[in-house]
Design goal:
With 131 residues, the chain is α+β, with helices and mostly antiparallel strands. It has helices spanning 3-10, 56-65, 91-105, 110-121, and strands at 16-19, 26-31, 37-44, 47-53, 69-71, 80-84. It has a single domain (3-108), classed as Aspartate Aminotransferase, domain 1 (Alpha-Beta Complex). The chain has a 6-stranded antiparallel sheet, covered by helices on one side. The protein is globular, with a radius of gyration of 20 Å.
């Protein structure tokens, strides 16, 4: 998968947008609602890479499984992996990693559901009962 193909794929996610805050060598793919990055696409040493957010246990597993999945430099290595594009990671697995990263940074509706459930569980004051 090429750098452009990966960026185009990331743009298919709801409210995703492309941001280049540093220079043309770095592209951050962000989620619009909270502006959190879910993919950092960059070029280093003539090669293209992407850093993706990942669950710590899954992150460790992927590093064992694929030679071209490494801890992300300069980011929390427990939570981010860097993948060499065009390496030993099949495109289907790379796209799954992107989806996993997006799912992690996207706001969860659980808090909203919990608040609604708490409101529903609270007694309603109907006033004094008539005899």
């Amino acid at each position: 998968m090429t750098r452009r193909e990966l960026i185009d794929h990331c743009l298919t996610y709801p409210a995703a947008f492309e941001d280049c805050p540093f220079d043309d060598e770095w592209t951050l793919m962000r989620y619009g609602a909270n502006r959190k990055a879910f993919a950092c696409v960059f070029r280093s040493g003539g090669r293209d890479f992407v850093s993706l957010r990942c669950d710590p246990d899954k992150s460790y597993f992927l590093r064992i499984l694929f030679r071209d999945v490494q801890p992300a430099p300069n980011i929390d290595e427990r939570l981010w992996n860097t993948v060499s594009l065009g390496g030993d990671v099949p495109d289907a697995d790379l796209l799954e990693m992107v989806a996993h990263s997006f799912a992690i940074i996207k706001p969860k509706n659980g808090r909203t559901r919990k608040k609604s459930a708490l409101r529903a569980a609270q007694p309603v004051n109907v006033g004094p009962l008539s005899p």
